[in-house]
Write a structure and sequence with these properties.
Blueprint lengths: L1 E3 L4 E3 L9 E9 L8 E7 L11 E2 L11 E8 L3 E9 L9 E7 L10 E8 L5 E7 L7 E10 L2 E11 L2 H8 L8 H8 L99 H18 L1 H9 L7 E6 L14 E7 L2 E9 L8 H14 L3 E6 L23 E6 H15 L4 H15 L15 H10 L7 H25 L3 E4 L8 H15 L1 E8 L6 E6 L4 E9 L6 H11 L8 E6 L7 E3 H4 L14 E11 L11 H15 L8 H5 L5
Parallel strand pairs: 1-10, 15-16, 16-17
Antiparallel strand pairs: 2-12, 3-7, 3-9, 4-5, 4-8, 6-7, 8-11, 9-10, 11-12, 13-14, 14-15, 18-19, 19-20, 20-21, 21-24, 22-23, 22-24
Helix pairs in contact: 3-4, 3-7, 4-6, 6-7, 6-9, 9-10
């Protein structure tokens, strides 16, 4: 991999032959795992300015109409997150000479608070080409990571690493994006207004802290800059003016193009009675065998991908597929000596006369992927010049722990990328499009709804991760008998299953809310995933607990989840900080009022500075006497912890008495009963956006 230094440049053609479509990743971490930033891309002409506001791609305009640029959103890492962007450089308009990639933080956050800032670039096959690390970004709220630029008909890349004190608005202004003079008034409204666009087919509003944006180009509306910051030093050949003006964080720019979503509340049925069932495009009730489920699921998914461009592109862009005409196939026979192979499906994308091809191997129910089968498809793909093999199952792949190990022939010049997609991720993306972001027309929305109904049908076998594995019951029994020892490999298996379950909970909840929901991993920077899981397994052996934290966009704290295998209890909780001003009794009364509709068995605990715990009680007891939650010795209150408890299932799966179902129900009950009533959440959920 080519290591870049600040100001350095390199020709992409010198790094790989497959640079027509590339994927860039911007990543960062923080000591708490909660630091975040938002990426943006600007297409510039030779004079260093955008041709129009539509050349500015950011959280509310993530996809170019021609597919040349697509912001794919965030993926969690060990101590932060990674933002991915795909560029189809063959589709970049001729008048564009530079492509600038930036990131910005919001409010008072600065890049100096983040760690391990880096940019990586991979070619169309997924092979890493270059890396650029930024060691000292400075006290800035926006950062230019790098740029692509044309030279002699080829694309080159330059590492910039230049900071802006003026945030996203300053970056946009500096490169020629128009700023509305009267947008400041709108900002106050849109900062708290996040509509449920499923109520009507209205324009979507999304913020810098939201991943649910409508993928359509539009004019940008931002807060005007206020002149107060020093100029940023110039960058050679980078384009754009050197001087920048300071600005507060821009408002949520609103899109002008309407998208089609489906209403959450179904229309009144015309059925004569409840026994009548709505006719479905993809019936699942007659499926009887695993082979039938795999065949039907593959055909249903691939057909919808080909017919709904927004959906197909979203699933394949992460695998390095270009933007182009997509066709999908099933029951394909490929020669393989004396025994031809039949992959479950094939995806082909044509762009400028070139074909990108991926073989698809599908599993449903709890059936695992077979290493020898995947290896055979990888070998066939390499011989035939295909770009990728995509595996699809209910399992969730973890960082540093691939589901299938394959051997690649190093003598072959052509490289085949192996990717995994879980059915939970498929359902997540479909849910985001039809409930929150919208698609091009009503027919596409209906197709996605039919796909989602099929995936959620009890007979489809596409329900996502649904079994804690063979080690679950023995580990629970050993913890109960106090015979589980540190270093037991079964504990590591349970920790991995727990991590898969937590990631699936994030996908499901994020799809329902239309918000980013990410697992928080509090580990030291650079910690190897295997070492981190081994340490968590040792803690499980000592404490008998599995812990996880979920970061839900727009909530005032982190949702904590604890499964105590000794007591058989699940605890969901959130900590909220005490207000900066006012009196403790006022805080207690206000908190109880905000939780008027919360469950009566909600536990409220006061957090005290320098002390392990403070007064606590159930909401039912505190409602008539909020002062009971205050410390009697006058200790300083730092915050409050809100918790709900329930018994956890005693079996490993998703049955009525299963552990996985109990976790899902606990998270859902806590979010719906507690989190939505806290500041920053209920207002956004209820207030509509102007159509």
């Amino acid at each position: 991999m080519h290591e870049m230094v600040k100001g350095g440049n390199v020709g992409l053609a010198s790094l790989s032959e497959d640079v027509g479509s590339v994927m860039m990743s911007l990543s960062w971490g923080s000591p708490t795992g909660e630091g975040d930033a938002d990426v943006s891309v600007l297409l510039l002409t030779a004079d260093g300015k955008v041709r129009s506001d539509g050349d500015f791609y950011f959280y509310n305009n993530p996809v170019a109409a021609d597919g040349s640029v697509q912001l794919l959103g965030k993926a969690p890492t060990a101590d932060g997150s990674e933002d991915r962007i795909t560029f189809d450089l063959t589709a970049i308009p001729a008048g564009v000479e530079q492509i600038v990639v930036a990131a910005s933080r919001y409010e008072s956050a600065r890049f100096s608070e983040l760690q391990d800032l880096r940019l990586t670039l991979a070619d169309g096959s997924g092979e890493s080409l270059l890396r650029f690390s930024i060691d000292d970004p400075g006290e800035v709220s926006a950062l230019l990571f790098g740029e692509f630029y044309r030279r002699g008909g080829d694309w080159k890349f330059r590492a910039i690493g230049q900071g802006y004190e003026s945030g996203l608005a300053g970056v946009a202004t500096d490169f020629g994006v128009d700023i509305d003079d009267d947008a400041e008034t709108d900002a106050a409204e849109t900062d708290v207004a996040e509509t449920d666009v499923a109520e009507t087919y209205v324009e979507a509003a999304a913020g810098a802290d939201s991943a649910s944006a409508v993928p359509a180009p539009q004019a940008v509306s931002a807060i005007p800059a206020q002149p107060s910051s020093p100029a940023v030093e110039s960058v050679p050949e980078a384009g754009g003016d050197a001087g920048v003006e300071a600005a507060p964080r821009p408002a949520r720019p609103r899109t002008a193009k309407k998208k089609v979503t489906l209403p959450k509340v179904a229309k009144k049925s015309l059925a004569e009675n409840d026994s009548w069932r709505v006719a479905r495009l993809f019936p699942a009730s007659a499926l009887k065998s695993d082979h039938e489920r795999e065949t039907r699921a593959t055909s249903v998914l691939l057909s919808v991908m080909a017919q709904v461009p927004e959906f197909g592109r979203r699933l394949t862009a992460a695998f390095g597929a270009p933007v182009g005409r997509m066709e999908t196939f099933t029951e394909v026979t490929l020669p393989n000596g004396e025994s031809p192979r039949r992959p479950d499906g094939v995806i082909r994308v044509e762009r400028a006369g070139k074909l990108w091809t991926a073989l698809v191997e599908t599993k449903t129910n709890g059936n695992p992927l077979k290493p020898d089968q995947v290896q055979a498809y990888t070998d066939i793909a390499a011989r035939r010049g295909y770009e990728a093999v995509i595996t699809l199952s209910n399992d969730v792949e973890l960082e540093g722990s691939p589901l299938v190990e394959v051997k690649l022939d190093g003598r072959r010049k052509h490289k085949v990328a192996l990717w995994h997609l879980s059915w939970a991720e498929v359902a997540h993306q479909a849910q985001l499009l039809i409930r929150h972001e919208g698609v091009g027309n009503a027919a596409h929305a209906w197709l996605l709804q039919e796909l989602l109904h099929y995936l959620q049908h009890e007979n489809s076998g596409c329900h996502g991760f649904q079994n804690m594995g063979r080690a679950w019951v023995p580990v629970r029994n050993a913890i109960d008998a106090e015979t589980l020892c540190q270093g037991d490999p079964r504990a590591v298996e349970v920790v991995e299953s727990w991590e898969r379950l937590v990631r699936q909970v994030c996908l499901r909840l994020g799809g329902e809310l239309g918000e980013k929901v990410l697992p928080v991993q509090r580990a030291k920077r650079g910690t190897d995933p295997a070492s981190r899981r081994a340490a968590l397994a040792d803690r499980l052996c000592v404490d008998g607990r599995l812990d996880a934290e979920l970061r839900i966009e727009g909530t005032p704290g982190v949702l904590a989840l604890c499964a105590d295998l000794r007591t058989g209890k699940l605890r969901t909780s959130i900590e909220i900080a005490a207000p900066d001003q006012g009196y403790p009794l006022t805080w207690a009364k206000r908190l109880v009022r905000r939780l008027a509709e919360a469950p009566a068995d909600l536990h409220v605990e006061t957090l005290l500075e320098g002390q392990a715990g403070g007064p606590r009680g159930t909401l039912e007891r505190l409602r008539p006497e909020p002062a009971d939650i205050l410390p009697k010795n006058g200790a300083q209150i730092t915050g409050f912890r809100l918790s709900l408890f329930r018994g956890m299932g005693n079996t490993r799966g998703t049955a009525e008495s299963g552990f996985i179902r109990s976790v899902d129900e606990s998270v859902d009950r806590f979010h719906a009963g507690v989190v939505v009533h806290l500041d920053g959440r209920s207002a956004r959920a209820r207030r509509p956006v102007d159509a």
